[in-house]
Amino acid sequence: MRIRTTDRDLATLRADVAVCFAYEGDEAPRGIAHRDLGRELAAEMRAEGFRGRRGDAVQWNSDGRFGSRRFLVIGLG
Fold it and tell me: For a disulfide at 54, which of 31, 43, 62, 77, Cβ 3.0-4.6 Å?
């Protein structure tokens, strides 16, 4: 498994899974520059009851609408 960090826009990044983070109380993941991607991830967070607590995670399948097919939001507490 290869893990790589980047400051590139996650909407255009091609990866098996793109990971982003949210703190407890955040309504959307941090650092998402692309408005549509941020809106989609925020909607999935709400739908799944994601609270952003340490260890919380939610996965979303973009169905190919963005560079990566899957996105993972991890809670940081």
Answer: 77
pLDDT per residue as tens, the chain (77 positions): 777 777 778 788 888 899 999 999 999 999 898 999 999 999 999 999 999 999 899 999 998 899 899 999 999 99
The DSSP string of 4-61 is ----S-TTT---SEEEEEE-TT-SS-TT---HHHHHHHHHHHHHTT----TT-EEEEE
Amino acid in the structure at residue 13: L
Beta-bridge mates of residue 19: 72
- pTM equals 0.88
Q: How far apart are the first and last CA of the chain?
A: 26
